Amino acid sequence: xxxxxxxxxxxxxxxxxxxxxxxxxxxxxxxxxxxxxxxxxxxxxxxxxxxxxxxxxxxxxxxxxxxxxxxxxxxxxxxxxxxxxxxxxxxxxxxxxxxxxxxxxxxxxxxxxxxxxxxxxxxxxxxxxxxxxxxxxxxxxxxxxxxxxxxxxxxxxxxxxxxxxxxxxxxxxxxxxxxxxxxxxxxxxxxxxxxxxxxxxxxxxxxxxxxxxxxxxxxxxxxxxxxxxxxxxxxxxxxxxxxxxxxxxxxxxxxxxxxxxxxxxxxxxxxxxxxxxxxxxxxxxxxxxxxxxxxxxxxxxxxxxxxxxxxxxxxxxxxxxxxxxxxxxxxxxxxxxxxxxxxxxxxxxxxxxxxxxxxxxxxxxxx
Amino acid sequence: xxxxxxxxxxxxxxxxxxxxxxxxxxxxxxxxxxxxxxxxxxxxxxxxxxxxxxxxxxxxxxxxxxxxxxxxxxxxxxxxxxxxxxxxxxxxxxxxxxxxxxxxxxxxxxxxxxxxxxxxxxxxxxxxxxxxxxxxxxxxxxxxxxxxxxxxxxxxxxxxxxxxxxxxxxxxxxxxxxxxxxxxxxxxxxxxxxxxxxxxxxxxxxxxxxxxxxxxxxxxxxxxxxxxxxxxxxxxxxxxxxxxxxxxxxxxxxxxxxxxxxxxxxxxxxxxxxxxxxxxxxxxxxxxxxxxxxxxxxxxxxxxxxxxxxxxxxxxxxxxxxxxxxxxxxxxxxxxxxxxxxxxxxxxxxxxxxxxxxxxxxxxxxx
Lengths: 367, 367
Known about the structure:
homodimer, 367 residues, alpha+beta, Ribosomal Protein S8, Chain: A, domain 1, seven-stranded mixed β-sheet, two-stranded antiparallel ribbon, 38% helix, globular
């Protein structure tokens, strides 16, 4: 990313800009604020692929009505420890925020809480939601399905989403553990970057449409862009030799929790067409959970155990050529600290688009 | 395994044999029966590495007192939706069975249930416990930590267990989905087999003690057996190129749920020595969970969605050289059907050991 980084933008100004765009396309202030803040939070954590880079897509979807600006969000069914929310085809971020908050409220009251969401949209980085559990002394979990990009093991048609899983657990003096991982070997973004830099990609990331291992990033991206049938490989790669069936199994598990339990569409049907062949309402599914730590063990004991455990991993002798062992979330916390200090990093392409959006929405540009 | 398979044993006779061995070393009848049945269930499902092959190890541990034959199993803390059980250093199978049953009971009553176990032992295949949820129309989950065999990403000392995860979800006319996967790229058993067959192993499975990629199965197994510091790699392999940090993250997540929430030992400390340097009581941790489907969606709808989803995966065009796409658990269900018909497959090495055990325990041999 550093190749492309050209500027740093004031965090609050960027949030306010996104907020105004959302308001102009009809989103209520609460949801506009949530989506703006959660989008910029992704860029702050260094995950530019899931942040304000999506602002145009969201704004255009809202304007076209494929994303509903004022959705009828409703609780479909609820118990003291579970709920299903229908997002009404609105933005994914605000409903996810509220669903995770509901899971946490249940955990605070009863011990655990799980909320599944249907008829939703792309909602940025999962870590945003799993991490909401941390200040409440809960372990948090989030999952989502997504449009089909990944091959099932032994198959050659993208049928699974990158179906990520996030788990966040609080620690004491150490940083919390924050895992946020696609169940594919890599995200499509890595192949996009290789394509832009004219670099080859290693076997084990993707397959061409004919099922052969993809190594030419240009050909792979071309097949992806034209929807010809190229696909990402599951975590563990092609076949079963390196455990590709495990990544494939995790993707199915996410599909079960996020889509089949809530009644959302499975990955191949997440972005349907209308009978006229136009883009319809998305029907993405999410799953959020929270476990209250002190239902299992006193919080102080758990935090101490987390600190000691994480430190013991960092203290492991390093592999040849390596000088540091990371705990999940560490890189992102460090990026966030730097970016809060120096400004949100925005790359050339996204900056140009934000300027264009400023012009279109008659707002002052922040980049 | 087929190379080594020499005989098929009557299922009930094998279960009774194991039961008698456990009784003779002081285990109560209920626990002896559960451990015998759950052990043979692994062999029935074709997972010979986790079945009666462990009988000697369990029997000797029970005789030596490192596994407590009549443990003080007790509920440490409990809420309507959570519990922590101290296994009292007894056998892992019976406490796991009861813990999962308790999680299911909570799910039946309240909607979800989670039970974490500490001071436990090896408990065979995780699928045994996750699948207990199926007849109760629940989604089941099980996790366990284990002794250190896996390198953290960028490290070169085994510090993580193979820390498996199992998830089982009911279907309608299709078989249920049953994922049971180590979070390492492969199990040590695969390297053992390559060693026995004098075959090399592919890069991405393991590291020698010096941190170089292991390809010579003899050298790798020698370093493993002598505890010199060789280690398995996480799902995704070495480094981050193919997502090894994801398998590493999942292993930490299992450690958090199974060990840190319950107060069990983290993987490197699961099998401690006594002050005299002898083997002490193990302190393995497990985590079991159940979600009642109809708290989210009517069971009939869910089953139909599971059937359609699984069928849609099987219908995907096949990769070159492949003629079938599997759903997790299918291979094991098919093995179980065959083995119930033809007898439990027992390989030469295990058969010899069972005969020796029969002699030692003055029982009639069943192999």
